[in-house]
From TrEMBL:
Official protein name in the record: 2'-5' RNA ligase family protein
Origin: domain of life: Bacteria
Naturally occurring in which organism (per UniProt): Nonomuraea roseoviolacea subsp. carminata
């Protein structure tokens, strides 16, 4: 049986959205206060649909666009 460490997949979440059609102006204003440019290199991105049912996070990949 695989250990919890074997199942761990490191990741960085860039944003969460719980609603559709949210007004973007207030979000942009807050983000503008933290607009430092930090170079990063990505080799893969995924758009996921995440849900927390029965106290467990579960997600489904909705899109994985090519970065090339």
């Amino acid at each position: 049986m695989a250990s919890a460490a074997d199942k761990f997949r490191p990741h960085v979440s860039l944003a969460y959205s719980r609603v559709s059609g949210a007004p973007l102006a207030p979000i942009r204003e807050v983000l503008a206060e933290h607009a430092a440019i930090i170079p990063v290199t990505l080799n893969r991105v995924r758009l996921i649909d995440i849900n927390r049912d029965e106290r467990v996070y579960r997600w489904q990949v909705r899109d994985a666009p090519s970065l090339s």
